[in-house]
Amino acid sequence: MENQPFLVAEQVSYIFPDGQFHVLEDISLTINAGDFVALLGPSGVGKSTLLRLLGGLLKPTSGRISMADLPESSATDPIGVVFQRDNLMPWRTVTENVQLPLELQRQADQESRYRVQEMIELVGLAGFEGSYPAQLSGGMAQRVAIARALVHRPALLLLDEPFGSLDALTRERMGQELLRIWHALPVTVFMVTHSITEAVMLADEVLVMGGRPAVGDPAALIHRVPIGLPRPRQLEIQGTRSFQKCAKEIRSAIQV
Amino acid sequence: MPWLNKQPTWLIISISFLGLLLGWHLLVAWGGYARFILPGPVDVWQQFLIVLRDGRLLKHSLYTISEVIPGLIIGSLIALPLGYLLAKSQLAERLLSPYLIASQAIPVIAIAPLLTIWVRSTYWARVLVAVIVVFFPILVNIIAGLRSVPAELYELMASLQASRRQIFYKLELPASLPILLAGLKVGATLSVIGALVGEFVQPKSQGLGFLLVTARYQFKTALVFVVLVTLAVIALTMYGVVALVEKRMLRWQAKN
Ligand SMILES: Nc1ncnc2c1ncn2[C@@H]1O[C@H](COP(=O)(O)OP(=O)(O)OP(=O)(O)O)[C@@H](O)[C@H]1O
Ligand SMILES: [Mg+2]
Description:
Low-confidence stretches of chain B: none
Helix content of chain B: over 70%
Largest sheet of chain B: none
Number of strands of chain A: 9
CATH topology of the largest domain in chain A: Rossmann fold
Bound molecules: adenosine-5'-triphosphate, magnesium ion
Shape of chain A: globular
Distance between the termini of chain B: 29 Å
Number of helices of chain B: 12
CATH superfamily of the largest domain in chain A: P-loop containing nucleotide triphosphate hydrolases
Oligomer: heterodimer
């Protein structure tokens, strides 16, 4: 499935219907199956809006977004989303929250219970299965949301600053876990982040978004940087010259 | 009084209740009121024992309760789908809410006589009055509850391709349950008032309202007091039952 276009956006524009707020203008991108793409850009530029469009949660005002047919994927639900806010259901325990996607697909067998437990352990929350979201820290809640987005093995994983409220060390560890999962599963990842290091560390390609929709200048993709670093990547790679070069290129693109 | 503050609730309530009785007793003893104007607690207690022994209190209480409970249940069952419709459909809200709000300007006392003309059965006329009293606060709470469901959770359900039915059972119902149960608590006490209003308008043969009206005509003021206290106890019990259900169903809230 490598190198086949999986998710394609063609000249997508988006205007919020209420305030006639023009956020995105003429966005075109192609994400190949199995790719890991990161999106960077200043706050308020429209990253979350683009992510929602790609996930089909918003309909483009003009342009097209299409997703390739999934060949033998058994998942009836092709996407998993981690929203900028953790979006947990406060009346459900950690286990029940993670289980939600499977429940909606009417899977409640032994195998699914095993998978829920596996995901909880993966995000390092073993021992908190029966806790309610209000009893968790912000970072723990985000990890629950990540487990929930992965539990049904989606073909497309959309991540909106998934590590936003984690400390630097946990953040690095979760990034490595994400890479491990991505290697192990046939999943395509689109991730919004504010960290250049994280983007270079994880992605095959980094997109940079620019513009100031708040003052009538709708955002567009202004730069794309392919990250050719070898895989699998360990944390040490951050010290190498090629890593620094990518990071520098992105930084100067953002500052334009 | 820090010492009092540390005592268990039941003890505090007992103390304040005893104080109330004592104050009442002293007021009657020193004020020298005629019994038919203000009976003392001892008179009321003796009257209570009389109607308890001859079975009248139980008979009339049971009859009133048999109006109150169906009133609450039917009122909620009508309010539930209508509230859902009003919260979901702008058209329905624009069409119906003027009437619903206007109807609240008319006191039940004023329409209760009409209802007793239209509904042949004394019993059902009274239940209907209870239904009308209960209906509106529950309706308002259902709408408020549904409106309180965070938009992000709707987005989550959409990203997981949940059906309308699943959205209702797994999101809207549990998310609006706290506000809905708060409405039900109010409704539980109001249903007692509703049934009583029905009995006042049509004081035929049975019910605490009937007992109250006859006692008043016969200047048996102590009996009026017995009935009032019994009504309060019934309302408190109804409230308590709903509060108990609430505590069981909203265990997750206690952990917040
Ligand atoms: N529902 C909405 N209606 C109208 N305007 C909106 C709505 N949601 C977002 N916007 C506007 O669209 C713009 C882009 O918002 P978006 O959430 O996509 O930004 P972002 O790039 O994700 O920012 P951040 O990095 O802070 O999360 C913002 O200027 C915001 O004011
Ligand atoms: Mg955002």
